[in-house]
Each structure stands twice: as structure tokens, then as C-alpha cells.
Amino acid sequence: MVRTRTPVVAGWFTDGEEEREFRLLGTRCSACSAVFFPREDAYCRNPGCPGTGELAEVPLSKRGRVWSYTDGRYRPPAPYVSDPDTEWEPYTLVAVELEEERMVVLGQAAPGVTVTDLAVGMEVEVVPGVLDEDAGTVWTTWRWSPVRPVDSLEVTR
Predict the structure, then answer these.
(1) How many angstroms from the chain centroid is the CA of residue 139?
(2) Does the global pTM surpass 0.90?
(3) 7 exposure class (CB count in 10 Å sphere: 0-12, 13-18, 19+)
(4) Percent of all residues in the chain with a pLDDT value above 90, rounded to a whole number
């Protein structure tokens, strides 16, 4: 059976499975140039805006710098959906200041990235991720992954 890939929240990121195509999506006000994420489709939230602009969808910066981070070491209580019969695995949360927009976006780190792999100010990039899976659906989301320095890349000849 083929499972359907479904975004956890429609319209917050592109559907691209490949990292180079994947982007968070925000909106920009044409009157004041304020950018919003999560996206805003009804009105400009900038209190200094005259409110006469249209809101257009814009892809956000793919990269940013770690602003803060922490780990979740306990199973959250209801209404968080979690199978109590499975072992709890800690996860890492990362707050990232986007490169161009200068706004902070929160998200989970990519699988395998822990707090020991992160430092405030290090460069990270947004990548596609999976939040949950069931028999018919793969629920997709975004994750933050450290950008590897050039000297750590393998060179093939």
C-alpha cells in the first residue's frame, strides 16, 4: 500500500522531499514589507502598517543561525498524542534566526542531532522531516540540520 505524504500544517512549507527544494513558506505585506511565519493570510500583523497592502506568499531563508536550543526529555501529557507503550525518545528543539528575515523560527532538530551537536550562533538549514506515520499517511514537517563545514565534506575523485 502506498502511503500519502501529508503536511502537518498545509501551506507552511513546500512539498519537496529533496533538501535542496524544501523551504518554509511565509507571507510578506506589500505595504510595509513585514514577513510572517506562521503565514498570515487575513491582515498585516504589523501595528505600524497602514494596512493597505496585500499579503503574498514568500519562501523563507533556507539557512539561519541557532538562537537557542533545548531538549525534551519527558513524554508530554495529554492532549499530546503519544503511544504510552513505546519507549520515549528525547528530541531536540532549535530556535533559529533566519538569515534574511531576521525572525526566529522554532522547530525540531533533524534525527540524530542532539544538544551536544549544537551551539548558539552555528549555521543550520531547514530540511524536510517526518513527524509521524501510520498505515496510510506520512505526516511531514520541517527540521533543522547543522550545515557541515566545507572541510568535513568528503571529496570524491
Answers:
(1) 14
(2) no
(3) middle
(4) 64
